[in-house]
Structures are given as structure tokens and as C-alpha cells.
Specification:
28% strand; Jelly Rolls; 401 residues; 3 domains; alpha+beta
């Protein structure tokens, strides 16, 4: 079956007032529209446009609970739709954050349950027992993000650039920067430096103010203009937050339209600005690390973070046909297929199709539908091989292989 679904964008303060509406051809609400959720997550389950198609169910979550065999097929044993598809529009930075592994999520969820921490408590870290790997596909001309730790050599070069800019001031104050440079030496340097910064340790407030003041001098004269421009933006949005300095420890990436990132468990990241299609495991487990007024549990975040340094984690697609790109991360929860013309693709589990341009006819083993720009459909596993015909762009989220 093809069952039309819809939802209302989440009005988070960092959202754009126009990007999602412009993409999907809808009427702007007048509020920030940050994320459009397409799935069965209890936080904002998709509405079923015609409940008669879904045994009278008002939401996709209700229908899955009522008939998991039909809606989930072989994934019914998990008891939930294993992925969540989003359209995300950021006009300012999201919080620095990371997500646990499956084992960490289960242990943390059980531990906080045993402690009696309510699920909606502001100091609750684990809202469920699931991991939350995710990917983002850039729709806007550029999509800016921080993701993962850059090499220590590059980070030291950035600090040296700040020291050079500081020396051009009337009243240089090199000591806080020299302290930062010293912390970046020795064993476990990233972990100890990150913990010192995030815990607002001795000297950190002074360091944050100094870096915020120097960044405008360094942005034009150093080899790191994007990094220092980001510091300027973050200092304006979150003055005094240690995440301003932490951003210099991280890879700063600008995706071009059509490029994607994959953010596995333990990867610290923050989206900064842009419009994209995001696909993730259906979890709400977020451990924050700055750039937020929300709860930050430093020891718990340290326990899940991966402190290894690595290049930007681009997710490159396979292209089995000129009109098909398959973005396949190393998890079974989800994969994403981008279809831009006549093509075929076989699903082995539930799927959600979202059209962002033009229109296409999708035909499966049981039924067929026409999907137009701005529309989304839940596809039951019985449809099997899907044939796409038409001129448009469809993002298909489904379970991994």
C-alpha cells in the first residue's frame, strides 16, 4: 500500500522561516520551521491523510501499533519503525551533540529507569534504548556543519594563528592561548582538553572571551577563515559558551548541494546552517556538549564520545543507474535512495517516499500512486520492487540491507 502522510514542522528557534515551505511548496507558518518529521516517532508521529486507508488510524504510530505485521513486515520484531526521515532547515547553529552506541543506549536507559528519572525530566539523557546514527544530505547550495575531531596538528596551527593575531593587538594576552596549546600536548590530549573546556575549568571563561575577541582579527589573515568566521557567529549566538572554543577542535565542513555526511555513534557534531534531508535511527538519545541552554552531562558525554581524529565523514553514494543514488551507511536501521527519473528499486521492509521536485508515479507489486512535490507516502513492505516513472526528485527512506 501507498498511504499518504503529512506533518507540521517543528518550530525550534534555530529553524528557518521559509526554507521548508519554499522547498515543498507549502504556506509558511510565520514561525521558525526547523524540522519536518516523517515517521512514527512518538515525539511527532506523521498524520495519515486518509485514516480509512490505515484501519482508521490517525497517525502512522497508531497504525504500526495496530498492525505491525502489515506495516513493518520482517521488521515487526523490533516493534517500531526503525528510522525517521526529516527535512531540516537551520538558520543558526544547533547544539554540539553526540549519540550512543546500541549497547550504551540500552545500558543508559536501564540505568536511568532504575534511578527513577522521569522520561521528560530535563536531566534525562536516555529517552529510549536505541542508538541514533544519522546522515544529512544537502539540499541548499551549501550546508555548514561541525563534525568529528580534526587532527591535533591542525588544531595547534589554529591556536598559533590566534597567538599571531593577539600579538597585533595593543594589549596582547597570550597566556590563555598558551595554556590551550599546552593542553593539546601529551597523551589523551583531546579528551583532557575537551573535558577542561566543557567543564568550564580554570581559565576557560577568560579563554572563551579572548578567542571571541581575537577571531575578527584572525578571520582575514590566517589560513582558517571558515573556522574563525564560525567562532564569530557562535560568539554572537552563545556568548561565553565553551562550545565557541570547542568548535576549533572539530572538522569544519561545507557541503555542496548533493553531498552527504554520515554521523555514527560517538561522533560530536553540530549543524550550523542550511537545508537538508536527514535520515536517522528512530531514537531521541542526544548527549549535548555546548551551544545550548539545555542540560549538559559532561561525564556521560565523555563516556560516549569517540576522541579519535579523522577526516570529514562524507557518505558517498553508489549509483547503479544514472537516475539512482543509494546512500548506505554501515548500520541496518536505514538507507536512503535518491531517484531523479525512471528507475526501479526493491524494498525489503517499510519505506517512506518524499517528493521534493516535480512528480513521479510509483508502482509496486500491489498498488500504484502519483507523488508530487511536497507530498510524502508510507510504503508497506508488500510492494516489493518499486518502479518510478516521471520527472522529479524522490527521496526514499527504507531499512538497511
Amino acid at each position: 500500500m501507498f498511504v499518504k502522510i503529512a506533518n507540521t514542522p517543528r518550530p525550534y528557534a534555530w529553524g528557518s522561516t521559509s526554507a521548508i515551505a519554499d522547498l515543498l511548496g507549502t504556506t509558511p507558518s510565520g514561525e521558525p520551521e526547523a524540522e519536518l518529521w516523517l515517521g512514527a516517532h512518538p515525539g511527532s508521529p506523521s498524520r495519515i491523510v486518509d485514516p480509512a486507508q490505515a484501519e482508521g488510524s490517525a497517525t502512522l504510530l497508531d497504525w504500526i501499533d495496530k498492525d505491525p505485521a502489515k506495516t513493518l513486515g520482517g521488521a515487526a520484531g523490533a516493534g517500531q519503525l526503525p528510522f525517521l526521515l526529516k527535512v531540516l532547515a537551520a538558520s543558526s547553529a544547533l547544539s554540539l551533540q553526540a549519540h550512543p552506541t546500541p549497547e550504551q543506549a540500552r545500558e543508559g536507559f536501564e540505568r536511568e529507569n532504575a534511578l527513577g528519572i522521569p522520561l521528560d525530566a530535563p536531566n534525562r539523557n536516555y529517552k529510549d534504548a536505541f542508538a541514533k546514527p544519522e546522515m544529512i544530505f544537502a539540499l541548499s547550495e551549501t550546508f555548514d556543519a561541525l563534525c568529528g575531531f580534526r587532527s591535533l596538528d591542525e588544531t595547534r596551527q589554529i591556536v598559533h594563528a590566534l597567538l599571531a593575531a593577539d600579538q597585533r593587538r595593543e594589549d596582547p594576552q597570550p597566556q590563555p592561548l598558551e595554556d590551550l596549546l599546552a593542553s593539546l600536548e601529551g597523551d589523551d590530549a583531546l579528551r583532557t582538553t575537551f573535558e577542561w573546556l566543557l567543564s568550564n575549568g580554570a581559565g576557560v571563561p577568560t579563554l572563551v572571551r579572548l578567542v571571541s575577541d581575537i577571531a575578527p582579527l584572525a578571520v582575514e589573515t590566517s589560513g582558517f577563515p571558515r573556522e574563525f568566521a564560525t567562532v564569530i557567529d557562535l560568539a554572537r549566538e552563545y556568548p561565553g559558551d565553551p562550545g565557541i572554543v570547542i568548535s576549533l577542535l572539530l572538522n569544519r565542513v561545507t557541503l555542496a548541494a548533493g553531498e552527504a555526511l554520515y554521523l555514527p555513534a560517538g561522533n560530536i557534531h553540530a549543524y550550523l546552517q542550511g537545508l537538508g534531508v536527514e535520515l536517522m535511527a528512530a531514537s531521541d538519545n542526544v548527549l549535548r556538549g555546548g551551544l545550548t541552554p539545555k542540560y549538559v552531562d559532561v561525564p556521560e558525554l565523555l563516556s560516549v564520545l569517540d576522541f579519535s581524529t579523522a577526516p570529514v565523514p562524507y557518505l558517498r553514494p553508489s549509483e547503479p543507474a544514472p537516475t539512482v543514488q543509494i546512500f548506505r551507511p554501515d548500520v541496518p536501521d536505514f538507507l536512503m535512495v535518491r531517484v531523479t527519473g525512471d528507475a526501479g528499486y526493491r524494498i525489503d521492509g517499510p519505506a517512506i517516499a518524499l517528493c521534493t521536485a516535480g512528480s513521479m508515479t510509483i508502482t509496486g507489486a500491489v498498488s500504484s500512486t502519483e507523488i508530487r512535490r511536497g507530498e510524502a507516502y508510507f510504503v508497506t513492505p508488500e510492494e516489493g520492487t518499486l518502479a518510478f516513472r516521471g520527472e522529479g526528485t524522490v527521496f526514499l527512506a527504507t531499512t538497511g540491507e
